[in-house]
Amino acid sequence: MERPSAVERALREAAPHEIFDVVRSLIERRHRARTVDLLLVDYAMTRLQPVGVLPHTRPPVPVHDSAPGRAFGAQAAHCVRDRSADTVTAHLPVSVRGDRLGVLSVTLAADEDGGPAADVLADLQECADALAHEVVVAERDTDLFLQARRAERLTLAAEMQWQLLPGRSCARPEYSLGAQLEPAYAIFGDSFDWSASADDLYVTVSNGMGEGIDAALLTNLCVNALRNARRAGLSLSDQAYLADQAVYGQHRGEQHLSTLLFRFHLPTGEVEVIDAGSPRVWRVRAGAVEQIAFDAQMPLGMFEDTDYVSQRFRVEPGDRLLFVSDGVYDALSPAGEKYSLRALAASINSTRLLPAPQVPRVMLQELLGHRGSGPAADDSLVMCLDWHGREAPTP
């Protein structure tokens, strides 16, 4: 049996709020590092926030146009040499199962070739990978890392929504998935969820009516009802039915949610879908951008005893699917012009070369350029799924 590394053992034994201090001390001893910094991406995914005890932290670093941001975006180590100080700083992605958390930056004395040796860089990346796993676990028991991610204060509704989400990206050989919500620090009704098993990927995209706490409570009820039904092993139709009844039983039709439910069969690419509302789906296949239309059914919680019927379609390797809430395509410019479907299709086309986790942030930035810097009338959600498919087993 392969034993855990010294780094993993040290992290497991550390108190949750001390895991970065443990990694920093280990790297300083092992590689005589001058500095070791952990930067976590903020909720808007525009800044990398240094981890430290508030309020004594360094200024944030922009995700775009910075050396740490380059490592974060490319998900690969990026080294920068300072000839005047004869040092090199290695910026390493801190990610777990495709969920991009931040960057570990380590400054070392430069070697004869001007950079860290390959084995040193590999060891630093192992430290970053181990730290990523422990940060996810530690967030259950300490607020240190959640506080570090905040460039500003979250509204209470946004706090509830971010705690509800599974993450902002994930990856497996069959697919890569990323999603983002805006305004990041004041969202209320939009939400997404996903869960994968050996052969299935479940994805839901929800747009709850209302504002503030009421919208957040409604979405929390719906998402947890869907999770409860899914974890009981029920079919997609029964998941929708039970969530519908949970919402209707609480609000008697006065509040409801527009929701898309998907089940992707990983071995075949067969997809089962229930369209219970307004979120829309776009597909990019062989360079062509098109909207996928489904039979619209009633939003969850609108009426009592609504039966939901699933439809089926197939995804092919190389397909990209984008899930978009009405806060995107109904967004108005300062002059009152709606963000058109043509503009949305152009945005989808312009981001076709980006990896799935980066697409939602870029598309929402383009939407902000249309909407302007004033307060948003509605929150917005973009999710991007790249389908790779499962390779056939070798005989």
What does this protein structure show overall?
- A 6-stranded antiparallel beta sheet has the order 3-2-1-6-5-4. A 6-stranded antiparallel beta sheet has the order 7-8-17-16-13-14. The chain has a 5-stranded antiparallel beta sheet with strand order 9-10-11-12-15.
- The protein has helices spanning 6-13, 19-31, 67-74, 118-138, 144-148, 156-164, 212-231, 236-251, 326-329, 341-350, 359-371, and strands at 35-41, 47-50, 61-62, 78-82, 87-96, 99-109, 169-172, 175-182, 190-196, 200-208, 257-265, 270-276, 280-285, 288-292, 311-314, 320-324, 380-387.
- By secondary structure, it is of the alpha+beta class.
- Helix content is 32%, strand content 28%.
- The radius of gyration is 22 Å and the shape is globular.
- The longest helix is centred in the first third of the chain and has 21 residues, at 118-138.
- The mean pLDDT is 92.
- β5 and β6 form a beta hairpin.
- The chain has 2 domains: 6-148, Beta-Lactamase, CATH 3.30.450; 154-387, PPM-type phosphatase domain (Phosphatase 2c, domain 1, 4-Layer Sandwich).
- The chain has 11 helices and 17 strands.
- The two termini are 28 Å apart.
- This is Phosphatase.
Compact overview of the structure:
With 395 residues, this protein is α+β, with helices and mostly antiparallel strands.
* Biggest sheet architecture: 6 strands, antiparallel
Please state roughly what percent of the residues sit in beta strands, choosing from under 5%, 5-15%, 15-25%, 25-35%, 35-45% or over 45%.
Answer: 25-35%
Rg (CA only): 22 Å
Helix content: 25-40%
Oligomer: single chain
CATH topology of the largest domain: Phosphatase 2c, domain 1
Number of strands: 17
**From N to C, what is the helix and strand string?**
HHEEEHEEEHHHEEEEHHEEEEEEHHHE
Q: Could you say which structural class the secondary elements and strand pairing correspond to?
A: alpha+beta
Keywords: Hydrolase
GO molecular function: phosphatase activity
Domain PPM-type phosphatase: 174-387
Organism: Streptomyces violaceoruber
